[in-house]
Write a structure and sequence with these properties.
Layout (H helix, E strand, L loop, with lengths): L34 H20 L3 H12 L6 H13 L3 H14 L4 H13 L3 H14 L5 H13 L2 H14 L3 H14 L3 H14 L3 H7 L10 H7 L11 E7 L9 H13 L8 E2 L3 E4 L4 E6 L5 E7 L6 H19 L9
Antiparallel strand pairs: 1-5, 2-3, 3-4, 4-5
Helix pairs in contact: 1-2, 1-3, 2-3, 3-4, 4-5, 5-6, 6-7, 7-8, 8-9, 9-10, 10-12, 13-14
Length: 347
């Protein structure tokens, strides 16, 4: 079967980290330094270089790594870090050489196998990528990223059934199932498997409604914006109010619309006025908007053209009495914000 263009290390989305540790070494001239002290200094320099790589400073890290990686018997870690710095600087040839040497010295480095798997995947060597990710799995069979990495390699090999098994295993073990399905959807989308990507998006939204906003904004799904099903997924509110949760609805004469967003804007003003915490990332659709925070607030329209504000909260956040008091205050403040002001007066 034919495949789309080879994924880049980022596009393929395995969890292999593409930035590796670096090292720093200082040489004392004309002084005898015990081997143990040299080892300690080398470790500290590697740690320092790792921090630079984590911050994206490959050049600074390389300056620290090079003295340790170029000496007679470099450590496997020094070579691994120099490999990472080389990849970050676009030097694939030397990066691959150092990565191979590092694994020869110490094949127990799980991160090195993950890096190799990501590299092979980006170069279209899917069997080699699968072998590398299998080695990483064998070194730590409990690490959840195993299933995502193996699934990604199988996906690009065209083994869709096995890939789906791995992805489901990854999602079922993830701390945030919704975010896990978003990452799976991105893998499918990058591989050109649109229906599978859309299926994964539905799983994501059903698991965590806040993933809709992430899906809406992610450039990995740009091509799918032309598909009707994509819009149905990101514009459908599937939230199920928890049993024994709190829910109240307040209607206003101001209609819900997004062109000027008057009702939504006044709800936000009311929240700020009362000091009720909320996330500034607000989900807006033609039919409703969602505000998350201490309260879950849905702003929408009614059949008779009025605006409706649904205020809800989980039972563990507020007692019934506290929720009623807070929602009453919010409802009144929204009405105050919607009331026309006389110029020059203070509210």
């Amino acid at each position: 079967m034919s495949h789309p263009a080879k994924p880049s290390p980022d596009a393929s989305l395995p969890t292999a980290r593409n930035r590796l540790p670096g090292i720093v070494v200082t040489l004392a001239l004309c002084l005898f330094v015990p081997p143990a002290l040299l080892s300690q200094k080398g470790t500290e320099q590697l740690d320092q270089a790792q921090r630079l790589l984590d911050m994206g400073d490959a050049a600074g890290a390389m300056a620290l790594i090079e003295p340790l990686a170029s000496r007679g018997k470099p450590s496997a870690r020094a070579l691994l870090l120099r490999s990472t710095a080389a990849f970050m600087q676009g030097d694939r040839a030397n990066g691959r050489i150092d990565l191979a040497r590092s694994l020869e010295l110490d094949p127990s480095q799980r991160q090195a196998w993950l890096n190799l798997g990501a590299l092979e995947l980006s170069e279209g060597a899917y069997d080699a990528a699968l072998r590398a990710f299998t080695e990483a799995h064998d070194l730590d069979s409990e690490a959840n990223d195993n299933w995502l990495n193996l699934g990604t390699a199988l996906l690009w090999k065209g083994e869709f059934v096995r890939a789906e098994e791995m992805f489901r295993a990854y999602a079922s073990r993830a701390d945030d199932t919704g975010q896990a399905w978003v990452l799976i959807a991105k893998n499918y989308s990058v591989a050109g498997q649109d229906e599978m990507a859309l299926d994964a998006m539905e799983h994501a939204v059903q698991s965590n409604e806040r993933t809709r906003l992430a899906i809406r904004m992610d450039p990995a799904f740009e091509r799918l914006r032309a598909v009707d099903r994509f819009h149905r997924i990101i514009e459908l509110d599937t939230y199920v109010y928890p049993e024994n949760g709190h829910l109240r609805r307040f209607a206003y004469e101001t209609p819900y619309e997004v062109a000027e967003g008057v009702l939504l804007g006044r709800v936000i003003d009311a929240l700020r006025r009362l000091g009720i915490r909320f996330d500034s990332r607000i989900e807006v659709t033609p039919n409703w908007s969602l505000i998350w925070g201490d309260l879950r607030i849905k702003v929408l329209g009614t059949e008779d053209g009025r605006g409706l504000v649904e205020v809800s909260a989980t039972p563990d956040r507020y007692s019934p009495a506290d929720f009623k008091l807070l929602s009453d205050r919010l409802a009144r403040q929204i009405q105050v914000e919607l009331t026309p002001k006389i110029p020059g007066t203070r509210q």
